[in-house]
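During the first year of the project, the team set up a workflow for recording each protein of interest as an amino acid sequence followed immediately by a discrete structure-token representation. This format lets reviewers and collaborators read both layers of information side by side without switching files. As required by the reporting guidelines, we include two representative entries from the current panel. The first entry is reproduced here exactly as it appears in our internal archive.
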Amino acid sequence: MRKTFLPTLIIVASVILILRLFYLQVIDDTLKIKSENNAIKIKYDFPERGYIYDRYGKLLVANQPSYDIMVVPNEIKRIDTLEFCSILDITKKEFIEKIEKAKIYSPRLPSLFLAQLNKMEFAAFQEKIRKYNGFYIQKRSLREYQGKFGANVFGFITQVNDKIIDKNPYYKSGDLIGRQGVEEAYEEILRGRKGVKYILKDKHNKEIGSYKEGKFDTISQQGSDITLSIDGALQQYGEELMVNKRGGIVAIEPKTGEILALVTAPSYDPAVLVGRQRSKNYTKLYNDSIAKPLFDRGLLAEYPPGSPFKILTGLVGLQENVVTPETSFMCHHGFSYGRGAFMKCHCPGGVIKLHNGIYKSCNAYFANVYKRTIEKYNKPKDGVDQWYKHMKSFGLGQFLGYDLPPGRKGHIPSSKFYDHYYPNGGWRSSTIISNSIGQGEVLMTPIQLANMMAIVANKGYYYTPHVIKKIKGHQIDSKYTTRHYTTVNSRHFEPVINGLFDVYNMGTAAGLGVEGLEICGKTGTAENFTKLNGKRVKLQDHSIFVAFAPRHNPKIAIAVFVENGYWGNRWAGPIATLMIEKYINKKITRTDLEKRMLEGNLNGEYAKLYPKKGDSFLPLLTYSKQDSLRLNLTKPKDSVKKNK
């Protein structure tokens, strides 16, 4: 046995090697293309990207022709460099740098030399292209936008980098890829598939026909069209309302989870990221560290939610049976929770129940409910963790799973979080009472706030928010049609909804209503701090508003967040009302609100954020979760104010 093992192994290995060589050399011709690269020219046929439509079939994003100059370094012969550079308006230094970069990629394969020529530039170069061996024109398509809105929703297309090429063999030097928004999320569907042609060349480098009679050629396949859930008119209107303001608007259809509008402000015209100036314009937008136009506040900004969070405090209190809709507490313009510790409240005071606690936005009522919720359990740790589970069921403190690339979790503190900051123990319900009114250590993104209101509108369930409505030739991912239920029983939502309805009738949003339209809403005002020269400085509060409408059979749930916008009914409330009326009635009757919002300007408030000469400036609460949590944990509790 041992004598025959080695000869047998050698024979088997030899047979496998011979068969493999036979397959590669006789049967499989694909490697032959690579070995004959000097005699074969590869041409790509780039398809049009899929068109993008809004929920009503209105075209939002189309295509326009573009022309790239490609180069094969080994094929370059004597050319008039100065004339070449003059035609394309580039310097000789740029010419040399681009050629060197192409050589690094491959001296024998085509790579991008100059991208996105317009028609005039293409015509000028096309006239003399015969004089420039090694260069040729590659036709592509670029995006053409039908309006100056939706940049954060659409995203943009840009050239692939070396990292992408190494990771995905589909992409070659000079190829385009979707970045941000739906362009990135649905890249493989929108891009289609490029075609490839192998052209045989003679010894004089002239094309003499298809290689192997086109055996290896492939036909390009156009990208699939997609229909978004976005209402184009509503999206545009929202961006107009947010001019000269900073913040976000997210509107969702409760019964489907479809995102109707996703506004971030300030934004930019998506057309500025098309053409030869794309890179320059992107750099300018990227380097704007003050206004942050590339920062999608609707998805990424983590804010203290303020009074809208009281909705959840009330629902959890009902679910935990620590209160009923008839349970009452006395409000003496605030809530005392320890020696010298007082949470102020600016509601009229008196006997407060759930109903008027919501529409009056009473801090004292919800502080009592939260205190009872935590103290229901023997240990604060167990109470907080139970509260934490309820919050998780509303999609808080985690990624919602929507179909756009960027996202933030927000923050819902657990007992582990407090154990970390209080390693010696000693924390209890009064230590963290600010959570009850959406301050404390709680952070939410605008899309989480909008989804919260969709859950209330649905009385306990939601669909994962998404912007895709239909894909030509494809099915929508089933995760967007799957219901997610909260831990709060559906029967507890009706008394809360009644209170939200009266926010417009007799509460903090009185005067913002629309005749004939039943809106349920909640105002919010969140404290806003920064550090200036090492000192904690209070800036103007953030204005927040959440709502859904109509009261019965809701069609839209919305969250509006206006940075440094004072109280909730000053900026966010009117904007939410106008967005709701625009969507449901398709027209605006509250022209008084519209005029004030369109003409409103908060740049004076934002100017206070700019560092003066000699100042050391670090904004904290607006975007940084870690810094905001640190501030909340160390701030004196009696500084907590009324959230209107």
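The second entry, processed by the same pipeline in the following quarter, appears below.
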Amino acid sequence: MSGTFLAASAQAGGGRRHTGEAGGTTSGLSRVDLKGWAKAQLTADLARHDRQRENTSKTTLASAASFSSTSASAVDRQATLLSSPADDTAAADPTTLVLYDTAGPYGQLGELYAMATANLAGHFGTVTAKPVQQYTAGMIDSYTAVIYIGSTYYGGSIPDAIPAAFYQDAATTTKPVLWMGANIWGLANDVGVTRFAQKYGWDPTTSYYEDGGSVGTVTQVTYKNQALTRTIPAGQDGGVLRPTILTGSGYPAVIRLAEGLDTSNGHTFGWAIRSANLTYMGEIPFAYVSESDRVIVLEDLLFDALAPATTERHRAVVRLEDISPDSDPAELRSMADYLYAQNIPYGINVIPVYTDPNGTYNNGVPETVTLAQRPQVVSALKYMLARGAVLMDHGYTHQYGNVANPYNGVTGDDFEFYRAHVDTANNVVHDGPVAEDSTLWAQGRVTSALALFTAAGLPKPALWTTPHYAGSAADYKVFSSNFSARLERSLYFAGTLTGASSDPNRFIGQFFPYVVKDVYGTKVLPENIGNYEPEAYNNHPARLPADLIASAKANLAVRDGFAGFFYHPYYALQPLKDTIDGIKALGYTFVSPAAL
């Protein structure tokens, strides 16, 4: 996998405490050659650098294009994704235009990054996403802000696909423009380097991804006094553009919003900068993302463009995970008593069927149990609901048939809506939707699950969490039609924006720091700091209360953000207490997932 994705952890219930996919992998991309992309970007940037040295005089004296205003034109809304803000605390329906690249051998990256960006902007209001070459003059006038994602490096063998109309409108509008990654030098060249420098105070045409012949080792981005992580595998780092800030009379001030640190040489630079109405980020921060990652900068900067009057507040959400008919009622009641005493509302993720089809934990004898067949568990669930819990559906069986998917076929351990295996390097690999995947099949699973809640005398769950956070695009639409929201991390598949058929396992995985309305049209509630997992597994380190608290601290940089996490009730109570105490001490207030 190019980039990784955090999946929910697993358990077998009833005291059978063993790791599944807890901690999981971090948000990112599947089946995308980021190593090849990074090499192509740096090769193109080096060529631009060489051309710049040869043509310095010509470049710096380039005549400026006109900054004349353009009139508004009719807006093509065929790619409109969202119809309403995800949270009534956001500004009154701001609109966002997301433009992305599709050209070149890595053109598929554009749509994946555009979905991730559109999902975040879906917190604020309506979002329209379209390939940048579809931009027409004046289109920006119909939106609150525009975001361009430069994932294809234009130049050399890849002609510039950005219309001159967008360059002109971006340079003349007074509306917020957020530009990520490549081709900012194209804007400067189009409108004139001198004019660009006089308006924005820096020179993209002399700004490069390398510092002294190397991308260096940029491992930290500091934003709002939070030291955020940046961890890129060797050979897959396309670099961060180091902006050439101009000083002296005649140049406006450039605000360094976030500072990048290159630990190979100690150099710091503006990882994100702003001048006039232009905010520029030197990379696209959606690959190799962790719970304390530099993507937090983007998540917060969107408020500046779309809801600048937002009042700062910090909320937390917790849920208890992988509860099944095989869970221990005493453990559930113990958790309920503690959370109730602390006045903490919480979610309970319940799997209505426990099955061990191969007898993995039952001496080789297959076993299947429903909620109605475990009245003591049901009684404990009702006890929890009376003490602040919110009932959530966590699949039907949380496993797939009698096969290892990827472990043993037992409820809580395995994927239900997606196939997976463990490779020879001990990594969990997503293989694609299950063979029979369809809208009808997924709806059948949901219908069966809901019937079992009713049979047990429990209310219908209003919220859903996908087992191991993995389903197909068709599955997510089914979940959306049955539940008011999902509380989870999700997969977003290529072809979702364009309608084109694509590799069903080419996706971007994402988690959110606030409530969003995503490109599937579903409200998604935040789980962004992970879960307690005391043991390492599948190349993922243990994740202890201190780690969750550190991630919550990093997310304080999001001015109206959350710390969302989950906990398995088969673990001891003390780590949960430690985690909650630490998050409270940071100033977070716990709220019910049902209130979001």
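For the second entry, the following points were noted during internal review. Residues 1-25, 57-84 have pLDDT under 50 and may be disordered. The CA atoms of residues 175 and 584 lie 38 Å apart. Both points are flagged for discussion at the upcoming steering committee meeting.
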